[in-house]
Amino acid sequence: MHNALSGRASRTFFPPMKFHLNSITGNVFTGYGPGYVEVNRQRIESNLLVTADAIHTGWAPDGFAGLSRDDFAALLRFDPEIVLLGTGDALRFPHPRLTTDLTAKRIGVDVMDVKAACRTFNVLSAEGRKVLAALIVEIVPA
């Protein structure tokens, strides 16, 4: 900044910012790729639900095209504040009637591809949020 009265540049100093290293407790996505995700370095090749303290495989067995209202209603038992719906490699939105039970309980549903859902889960979980990742892991042809 320039000081108009003295003709000299003035400097504004800000106090140093402190960073704290937090160790993440609970489940963490450690990788992903075509046809799989890794949670805590464990490779999973099926649709799944992940919270900070639980992993459930076999969710939505018929994939994105077969999603039903019951698939989403089943998420209520986890009592999340937000659901991250990972829809595979592509961003696809479910019909709003499928998520009616969640929105009625004021539970947010954010739709994104699986990679973004994994990254977002790690950030929100590290912040202590009650987040649930509901992931459609697409099968890759051999």
Residue windows where pLDDT falls under 50 for at least 5 positions: none
The CATH class is identified as Alpha Beta
Summed over residues and divided by their number, the pLDDT gives a mean of 89
SSE arrangement, N to C = EEEEEHEHEHE
Instruction: Tell me the structural class.
Output: alpha/beta
Could you say how many structural domains there are in total?
Answer: 1
In CATH, the topology is named Hypothetical Protein Mth938, Chain: A
CATH superfamily: MTH938-like
Please describe what this structure looks like.
By secondary structure, this protein is of the alpha/beta class. The protein has a single domain (29-135), classed as Hypothetical Protein Mth938, Chain: A (3-Layer(aba) Sandwich). It has helices at 69-73, 100-104, 114-126; strands at residues 29-33, 36-39, 42-44, 48-50, 55-57, 82-86, 108-112, 131-135. Strand 1 (29-33) and strand 2 (36-39) form a beta hairpin. The longest helix is centred in the last third of the chain and has 13 residues, at 114-126. It is globular. The N and C termini lie far apart (61 Å).
